[in-house]
Amino acid sequence: MQDIRPTSRWRNAKRKEEEEFSAGLIEKDDCIYAELFPDSFIHQTEMVLEQYAASIAKLPNHPDSYPAIMKTIETAVLALNEINQVGGGGLIETEEREELCDYFDQVLIHWGFDIDDLTKSQNLGRYELTDDWREW
């Protein structure tokens, strides 16, 4: 599976910005990614995403797996809530939220799960998989 984790994009953006600063292409005041994405935040988030993907990969592709999928999503979202809170509550903003939610979807799609069927079975709208637990 191609690396679709948002943490990879965040890490790459930080590295590119550091390289541009070191090369004198941007000023220190223009450097934002170190503050937006502290290393500890990226690392902890990456661990949650890896655990989520590994848990989904173990589930049989069948509607009987839907409760386990929802529990896996809940566990991941609650862990991300905690990571965000420890970071002051502002690390996961709109763009990061969209990337994280898209990641949850892409993992399910990769393993062949029908997200429309999953959300309908839970009486949720198509883009509400994380809404019951998400604080970001």
User: How many distinct beta strands?
Assistant: 0
Percent of residues in beta strands: under 5%
Number of helices: 6
SSE order: HHHHHH
What best-fitting shape do the alpha-carbon axes yield?
elongated
Radius of gyration: 17 Å
Sheet with the most strands?
none
Question: What is the averaged pLDDT score?
Answer: 95
Proportion of residues in helical segments:
55-70%
Topology readout:
Elements: H1 6-22, H2 33-36, H3 39-57, H4 66-86, H5 94-110, H6 115-121
Helix pairs in contact: 1-3, 3-4, 3-5
At a glance:
Helices cover 62% and strands 0% of the residues. With 136 residues, it is mainly α. The mean pLDDT is 95.
Describe the protein's architecture and organization:
The protein is mainly α. It has a domain at 36-121. Helices cover 62% and strands 0% of the residues. It is built from 6 helices and no strands. The protein has helices spanning 6-22, 33-36, 39-57, 66-86, 94-110, 115-121. The longest helix is centred in the middle third of the chain and has 21 residues, at 66-86. The two termini are 27 Å apart. The model has no long low-confidence stretch (mean pLDDT 95).
